[in-house]
Write a structure and sequence with these properties.
Length: 631
Amino acid sequence: MKTAIATVSISGDLAEKLAAISAAGFDGVEIFENDFLAFDASPKAVGQMVRDHGLEISLFQPFRDFEGMPEPQRRRAFERAKRKFDLMSELGTDLVLICSNVSPLALGGIDRAADDLAELGDLAKTYGIRLGYEALAWGRYINDHRDAWEIVRRADHSQVGLILDTFHTLSRKIDPESIRSIPGDKIFFVQLADAPLIDMDLLYWSRHFRNMPGEGDLDVTGFMRAIAATGYDGVISLEIFNDQFRSGSARSIAQDGHRSLVHLMDQVRRVEPDIRISVPEMPERVDVGGIEFVEFAANATEAEGLGAMLATLGFRKTKRHISKAVDLWTQGDINIVVNSEPSSFAHASYVMHGANVCDIGLKVADAKATVERAKALGAELFEQPVGPGETKIPAIRGIGGGVIHFIDGSSELSRVWDLEFKASAGMDDDTSVGLTRIDHIAETMAYEEMLTWLLFYTSIFHTKKTPMVDVIDPAGLVRSQAIENPEGSFRITLNGAENRRTLAGRFIEESFGSSVQHIAFETADIFETAAKLARNGVRPLVISPNYYDDLDARFGLDEAFLERLKSFGVLYGRDEAGGEYFQLYSPTYGDAFFFEIVERRGGYNGYGAANAQFRIAAQKRHLRAKGMPKA
């Protein structure tokens, strides 16, 4: 199978679109007529430009309001078709998309439509052109691919076939299994798009909210399994109408698109092993056991300040790198690396972003396989010089220019702390406040980047995405969505900021695009941890008393329990199943970075979204008290 993408899916003029599509690795392109009409070059020149980019024009589209028209509109439709066929001949493409009629003048009737397509097929044959008929979900009479197939079947013409589109089928909740009965050689083209489940007008939903396969909620995998079962071996293409994509980076969106297709076809192949699908060989999605380490980049002064903060949180500086200014701080199963080495990737990250999380290490079953899959899906590999006594750890680039390293237990990678680090003085001192592991990491980005990183994580790692939630900031909305593994040992929340006045937006702007805004540590007893933190001199984020009054009204909490929450500044949540969630926040550090401490009880699996607006308000008060400009 070859891959393609419609020019309407990405931003820029036609030349910019083609450059991005070629660079992303697609085989072909759907030329959307408006993109061609707006471009100042002849059809022949455009066709040559496409071929110069190593692409083919897989489809020209759309040809609208053709079948079932009364006279004189019917005659005019055939005249329009001749003009389009002449244009296509100059462009150098042989397939046109004819979408089902939406005109109020259209006449119904399967046989009438079939006769029109058969007659047009005779004309198309003289040009060497094929006609692909597609049922629009909002078509006046034909809005179901099963009816469109019946029209194609009755037309019974070598030049007339079917075009299938995930959105038009799945948005109407039509069972994609019905596709399996269609002969593969009569399917001329397949278009793919995902979308979030939204209850709205189909046309508006389609024109503004489509996204890449795997980024939405439609069963695109089930659709493609049915397509593959027909024996279809033609082009699979992306047709994505999305306002966000059309205003974003053409290269980034094109890369996302290619990644989504490769990931999708890999999934199909694994579920249907007997189906022949041309897709790069790669390992399966990788199981993540948890977070092995988080690394901060800092200069010598800030490393000292960060170390002092970690000490108050109960961490011990247990090890020092054998040859570099890199310290390891530990507590429970948590490893925090503070890197102030002048000649290192971390230093470059510090110069760019200031003190920040520059690296995350993940525990995986097979580090080499992880990098192989990531590479096959277009991830950028990361390497840096390895000094004497150091271990080469496989890595890729992550969000905000950061790095993700992979540690497994089947090689020397599992001994990195012993091979590259030596014990620090005082490591036997017990300073723990009860933190056991990293519960989750929160990554902040511009809202338009969220889908990119959602696809990045879910295509490489064996994870699922949770429903998106709106986090209320006094200055605007922040969209939040979590990615987690089935065991809950690996959790990342993606937070998309829509403007710089939100706390998340401020963090992005002030840190020049750094990604990790906070790290949440887990404890088995939030109140015992809070008491120990207080003895260490930690003053948690001050939460408004009004919050606790509202807690009492919402949950009817025991008075002593409520007072305990209030006295320690702990936020509280409860899900419908009775699971409970406790949250304690540090004050902000630097440009709105902070730590969170959580306790989960009774199988609670959320992230306390209802508490976010109160936490944000408290953090903004704290920033103003420090004399920082109001966010």
